[in-house]
């Protein structure tokens, strides 16, 4: 069972992102403040859950959270400032959108750009340790998946409905054969040697 929060002295928001390793689309981030007594046995790191489980948990989190927000940085911003900085910016945007200001932030991972006037801690694999980070991971993932599924309608050749922009073998082949879409990250290179390497490890 995951712990409710990292510390109990201050009102805490958990933060996480989704889509950092994708070839296309935005990076999404979420910030979630849960009630201190919030418990839900099925809530876990989004990567440990099925698509169906995440879809069931999303409305529960959005209903029960004291505050939640989702934000993104698009592919052009990612190409301009790099994916790490874009992930930080998306998290900042999500925190800014919260209708209740947190007094403390817990960030999944080992790096973060400090948010003005709010202390934070970075927690490696925090989405598998704390409910508020796990909740943020689920919201970031489900909102991003929804975005990519909608993009798939206009760009079916890349199969974003299934791969959500991640560098699957089929996605890489489509990029090499068809070229980049307007939503691909141009600084994320796809080449035949990379494709061969991924094929050998698949």
From TrEMBL:
Co-factor(s): Mg(2+); Mn(2+)
The protein, known as: Ribonuclease HII
Residues in coiled coil: none
Gene Ontology MF: a single term: RNA-DNA hybrid ribonuclease activity
Record NCBIfam families: PRK00015.1-3
Gene that encodes it: rnhB
Record HAMAP family: RNase_HII_B (MF_00052_B)
EC numbers for this chain: 3.1.26.4
Domain of life of the organism encoding this protein: Bacteria
Family statement drawn from the similarity comment of this UniProt entry: Belongs to the RNase HII family.
Gene3D superfamilies: Ribonuclease H-like superfamily/Ribonuclease H (3.30.420.10)
Presence of keyword Metal-binding: yes
Cellular location(s): Cytoplasm
Cofactor binding remark: Manganese or magnesium. Binds 1 divalent metal ion per monomer in the absence of substrate. May bind a second metal ion after substrate binding.
Binding positions for a divalent metal cation per the UniProt entry: 16-17, 108
Keyword Hydrolase listed: yes
Predominant subcellular localization, coarse grouping: cytoplasm
């Amino acid at each position: 069972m995951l712990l409710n929060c990292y510390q109990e002295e201050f009102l805490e928001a958990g933060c996480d992102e989704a889509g950092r390793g994708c070839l296309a689309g935005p990076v999404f981030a979420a910030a979630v403040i849960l009630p201190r007594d919030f418990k839900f046995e099925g809530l876990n790191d989004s990567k440990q859950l099925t698509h169906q489980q995440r879809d069931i948990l999303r409305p529960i989190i959005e209903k029960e959270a004291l505050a939640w927000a989702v934000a993104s940085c698009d592919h052009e911003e990612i190409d301009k400032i790099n994916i790490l900085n874009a992930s930080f910016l998306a998290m900042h945007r999500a925190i800014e959108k919260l209708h209740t200001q947190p007094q403390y932030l817990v960030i999944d991972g080992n790096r973060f750009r400090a948010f003005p006037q709010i202390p934070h801690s970075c927690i490696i694999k925090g989405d598998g340790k704390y409910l508020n980070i796990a909740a943020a991971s689920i919201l970031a993932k489900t909102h991003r998946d929804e975005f990519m599924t909608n993009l798939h309608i206009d760009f079916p050749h890349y199969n974003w409905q299934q791969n959500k922009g991640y560098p699957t073998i089929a996605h890489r082949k489509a990029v090499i054969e068809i070229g980049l879409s307007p939503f691909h990250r141009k600084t994320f290179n796809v080449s035949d040697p990379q494709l061969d390497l991924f094929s050998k490890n698949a």
